[in-house]
Design brief:
The structure is a single chain. 42% of the residues lie in helices and 19% in strands. Strands 2, 4, 6, 7, 8 and 9 form a six-stranded antiparallel beta sheet that branches. It has a four-stranded mixed beta sheet with strand order 1-12-11-5, with helices on one face. β8 and β9 form a beta hairpin. The N terminus and C terminus are likely disordered.
Length: 339
């Protein structure tokens, strides 16, 4: 018994819903109003432009909804064509109007649009009222006339134009000044980097004048005095000691007589000094010979693993100092070089 009662209830509900849906599907196809109560409906405004949207309002009679459930037609899928030219952008939406905490009216609304100009008669729309006892009444709303206007064009003064070229704006003074400032800034940056590299290469401070460079013999004597004070030979560092000693003499020969001694062997340096002997009276066979002895000992210590005695090491630095001191230019020669 219970199973049969449930089946009867299910069949009754299905019949009610199927009837409402079938009437919703007939909205766009029905032009003639059925028999029964018919209500008027209104549009928000008389006309719209192509592509505009407008609300279609249908107000239920006062109190007719008491004790009843309102069933609305279903528009699917959206946008739904009410006519060939008019589309529904929404389903039927119920909206209640309440004043002073009292339900005054209920209205159904549909959002419409159209993309064709003209006047179109909207189809009637049904709303189903289902009572608590299952009785069902249908209220039909008459469709109003929707007027869709196009944008007016004055054909007497209308002149068609072709595509316009890309607009080019003139360069302003501000843009010119900005570009000029960037160019000046980049040039100053390049100049600053170049100056820093040149001053670093010449061992000069970044800013301000550099210290005056010592004459070749003064610079050499300072380095030789430092080498003598360090006494590297006493720390079993004969090879580094003679490397410093001979390199100092090479720098002195380069700065004093422009002899490229850094790329020459000891034998080649001695030959270059003998060639300069006729031009510089300070270069004598004796002083050149002492320098040759020091260079020979240095070659043996650096390349032949020879270990000179302490007295030989001390004598080598004295020979280097003697060579620089005796070949240093006198004051008259210095003044001539300056001139």
């Amino acid at each position: 018994m219970m199973k049969g009662f449930i089946l009867q209830c299910f069949f009754f509900v299905w019949m009610v819903l199927a009837s409402c849906v079938s009437r919703a599907q007939q909205v766009a196809d029905t032009r003639e109003l059925p028999s029964g109560p018919v209500q008027e409906s209104v549009l928000e405004k008389d006309s719209i432009l192509i592509g505009d949207q407008i609300w279609w309002d249908m107000t239920l009679p006062a109190g007719i909804w008491n004790g009843r459930q309102i069933e609305i037609p279903v528009f699917s899928p959206l946008p739904y064509k009410l006519t060939e030219q008019v589309e529904a952008l929404s389903g039927v939406l119920l909206d209640s109007v309440i004043r002073k905490k009292h339900l005054e009216s209920i209205r159904a609304r549909i959002l419409l649009t159209s993309f064709d100009s003209g006047s179109y008669q909207l189809p009637p729309v049904p709303l189903c009222l289902v009572g608590q006892d299952g009785t069902r009444d249908t209220i039909w709303f008459k469709g109003p006339l929707l007027t869709v206007n196009t944008i007016p064009v004055d054909t007497t003064s209308f002149e068609p134009y072709g595509l316009k070229p890309q607009m080019r704006y003139p360069i302003t003074k501000g843009e010119i000044l900005t570009l000029a400032g960037i160019v000046v800034l980049l040039a100053a940056l390049v100049f600053l980097v170049n100056m820093i590299i040149r001053r670093r290469r010449n061992h000069l401070p970044l800013f301000g004048p550099g210290r005056p460079k010592d004459p070749p013999h003064i610079a050499a004597l300072k380095v030789l005095e430092d080498i003598r004070t360090r006494e590297l030979w006493k720390k079993q560092k004969a090879k580094p000691y003679y490397t410093l000693l001979t390199d100092t003499i090479r720098v002195y020969l380069r700065d004093r007589w422009r002899i490229q001694a850094m790329e020459k062997t000891s034998t080649q340096m001695m030959a270059a000094l003998h060639q300069m002997e006729s031009e510089d009276p300070l270069l004598t066979d004796k002083i050149i010979g002492e320098l040759g002895e020091m260079l020979s000992k240095g070659d043996l210590a650096k390349f032949a693993k020879y270990t000179p005695s302490d007295s030989e090491n001390e004598e080598s630095v004295r020979q280097a100092i003697r060579f620089v001191t005796e070949t240093a230019p006198d004051e008259e020669e210095k003044e001539e070089k300056i001139r």
